[in-house]
Design goal:
The protein is α+β, with helices and mostly antiparallel strands. It has two domains: 7-145, 2-Layer Sandwich (Beta-Lactamase); 174-253, Winged helix-like DNA-binding domain superfamily/Winged helix DNA-binding domain (Arc Repressor Mutant, subunit A, Orthogonal Bundle). Helices cover 33% and strands 21% of the residues. It is built from eight helices and eight strands, in the order ββαββααβββαβαααα. Strands 1, 2, 3, 4, 5, 6, 7 and 8 form an eight-stranded mixed sheet that branches. A hairpin with a 4-residue loop joins strand 6 and strand 7. The two termini are 37 Å apart.
Length: 254
């Protein structure tokens, strides 16, 4: 965390600050020199402060170039994900909690897979004044291979090819009103798995999986598995990964 900021509380969920200033640029000025990929945006998703490494990744020569700009001003191919980036910001602001996600985008240095943790910046009274983001490059890890295989499978559901993809990881932001295990079942069903395969992957009995799907049908108002798949895709669930799925097995086995 930036050394110049006086935090009351800093958790995975939010950052609470003492100061009543409205200028995030001064509040988070030390971000610029923080190693890695760090950013602070205001309530309107305008860039207030960004680390040097993150600015370079997005295509700017230095952090000052992007102050008061938005994701729509990104000077590299990652700009194609601008609307998705801003949607994540709004999820953070509207829910007052963090959003953990995976970015697969074409940045200034080429295609990268990143894990992002965006969290609300708020005052002691609860007023949200911005979004703080910490990002880790996982392009050279086993997790990258898992995400790549998943994305390659999901391409058959996506009309535009070679476009950025973002997967959301935390359960509270799922578009379907299902339990963690039920979400995992739908995730695997959409990827073509049978009841027996889903049971094997989740280490549960086939009878248990069948009972889950009975409940899923009731919750989603569906009468068969095809309708569940259609509802999942139409709701945006395709871009949500249940936390008990990552990565329980190599994606090739899913």
């Amino acid at each position: 965390m930036p050394e110049l900021i006086k935090f009351k509380e800093s958790t995975q969920n939010k950052i609470i600050i003492h100061s009543q200033k409205n200028d995030l640029k001064s509040e988070f000025s030390s971000i610029v020199n923080v190693p890695g990929l760090v950013i602070a945006k205001d309530i309107n998703s305008k860039y207030s402060v960004i680390s040097k490494d993150y600015a370079l990744l997005l295509g700017w020569n230095n952090p000052d170039q992007c102050v008061d700009l938005t994701d729509f001003d990104i000077p590299c191919e990652a700009v194609k994900a601008a609307e998705q980036f801003r949607t994540l910001d709004q999820k953070v602001i509207n829910s007052s909690t963090f959003v953990l996600s995976i970015y697969m985008c074409n940045y200034s240095f080429g295609w990268k897979t990143l894990i992002s943790n965006k969290m609300p910046i708020q005052r002691e009274g609860g007023q949200i004044i911005g979004v703080y983001g910490q990002v880790i490059d996982i392009s050279n890890t086993n997790m990258f291979n898992w995400c790549l295989t998943l994305n390659q499978f999901d391409q058959k559901f996506i009309s535009a090819k070679n476009t950025p993809v973002i997967y959301i990881l935390n359960q509270e932001h799922s578009p379907l009103p299902l339990s963690k295990q039920q979400q995992a079942c739908v995730f695997l069903l959409v990827r073509g798995k049978s009841m027996k395969e889903i049971a094997n992957i989740l280490n549960l009995s086939v009878r248990t999986i069948e009972s889950y799907f009975m409940i899923i049908k009731l919750k989603l108002g569906c009468t068969n598995k095809s309708q569940i798949i259609e509802k999942a895709i139409n709701s945006g669930f395709l871009h949500y990964i249940p936390e008990n799925i990552i990565p329980i097995k190599p994606m090739k086995d899913l």
